[in-house]
Write a structure and sequence with these properties.
Keywords: Transferase. The protein is built from 11 helices and 11 strands. It is α+β, with helices and mostly antiparallel strands. The chain has 2 domains: about 80 residues, Phosphorylase Kinase, domain 1, CATH 3.30.200; about 180 residues, Alpha-Beta Complex (Aminoglycoside 3'-phosphotransferase, Chain: A, domain 2). The strands form 3 sheets. Strands 1-2-3-5-4 form a 5-stranded antiparallel beta sheet, covered by helices on one side. A 3-stranded antiparallel beta sheet has the order 6-9-10. A 3-stranded antiparallel beta sheet has the order 7-8-11.
């Protein structure tokens, strides 16, 4: 299929993370550069990416701030986008630059502002997902699991306002080129509450440097983190991080998940 789409393709580099069965290649064809992404048997991210490209990404692609889709096939779990120049922000000298976090806030606001829908069942579904993670193999302490289960089952399940979200909004999915931030990787894109896109940043980058949070909020324009809903999201995000990272063998990310769990529960203990 790729040979039909891009005959004579030459592979220039591989950008796969190596944690899951997803291959990401930088290729050239007829003098143009592309990114090719192929999902494994259990992959659901390619469908999400293609849905995002079809429905939600124009506020970014029209500005050249996200890669434009060239080809895609849901059944083959294969997509091709135009190459977007830039350096990954994660691990670079740009990772602590408030100016980029302000741009990240501005870009996220464009995505979220497209529309909003009300979902009366969102909170219940998310609670069930968190409880399901706790039933799978993980290294969360047994007494912590009991406490998490007790808390989750005590929560109310109010209706939620959902918007298009990226789902993994953090520096590992940002590129910077000549001072301009752009966005990649839409494999977790879905309708969720806006505050869920703050979760990865709050767990790591905002804790590292409050200036980054201030700049991000300045770019975004508001702070959607209503305290009770935000706490529920923090707990669910922490559980998912620790359990998923254990499953794929990412010990550093797993440790972050355990810190997130401890932090969320510590906040409950503060009078």
């Amino acid at each position: 299929m790729l040979a039909r789409w891009l005959p004579g393709t030459s592979v220039e580099a591989e950008h796969s993370w190596g944690l899951v069965a997803t291959t990401v290649l930088e290729v050239t064809c007829a003098g143009a550069r592309f990114i090719v992404k192929a999902g494994g048997d259990d992959d659901h991210g390619i469908r999400r990416e293609l849905d995002a490209h079809a429905n939600w990404l124009r506020p970014w692609t029209d500005r050249g701030r996200a890669p434009a889709l060239v080809h895609g096939d849901v059944d083959a779990k294969l997509l091709v986008t135009r190459y977007l120049p830039g350096q990954l922000v994660l691990g670079s000298e740009h990772a602590d630059d408030p100016r980029l976090y302000r741009q990240a806030g501005e870009l996220l606001a464009l995505l979220h502002a497209q529309f909003v829908v009300t979902d009366d069942d969102h909170e219940r579904r998310e609670n069930e997902k968190a409880l399901a993670w706790l039933r799978r193999p993980h290294r969360i302490a047994a007494h912590t699991v009991r406490r998490l289960r007790a808390e989750i089952t005590s929560w109310p399940t109010p209706s939620a306002s959902l918007v298009p979200t990226h789902g993994d909004w953090q520096p590992r999915n940002w590129l910077v080129h000549e001072g301009v931030l752009s966005v990649i990787d839409f494999g977790r894109a879905a309708l969720r509450p806006a505050y869920t896109d703050f979760g990865r940043l709050a767990a790591r980058d905002f804790r590292r440097d409050p200036r980054l949070e201030a700049a991000f909020l300045d770019g975004y324009g508001t702070d959607p983190r209503e305290p009770d809903a935000w706490h529920r999201n923090r707990v669910r995000e922490a559980i998912g991080t620790a359990a998923w990272a254990y499953r794929v063998g990412d010990e550093a990310f797993e440790a972050q998940g355990h810190r997130m769990i401890a932090g969320a529960l510590r906040d409950v203990d503060v009078p």
